[in-house]
User: Fold this.
Amino acid sequence: MSTTTLASIAMTYRLSISAADLLGADALSTYEDALSAALERAYPDAVVFVDARLARCDESTYRATCTTVDGVELHVWRDGVGRVEIGVDPDALAFAAQEAICESFRHADETAWERACEAVTV
Assistant:
């Protein structure tokens, strides 16, 4: 759980074709459900919306627009090499909080992948 409470998370997730092939016919909905659940566990008070789309790319990526309970807007994204980054006014959110949010998104993505894989192997 992050030290900063998010009030909302709106994410567009671009699932790579190779990842979708591993998850099968319902890959997008399977991953949307798994990632939504992981983010809701990390931020139980947040309204979470995840829109997964198939992308012709080597690695899955995402972009999220979030708002803290204090009204600070921030952007979190995962680029094509797996790094999770954050964009926010540094005066509005402490560096430690920024790092905690990045780590919680990284963990949510990893957890979602594990859960999605488990769902298709059952």
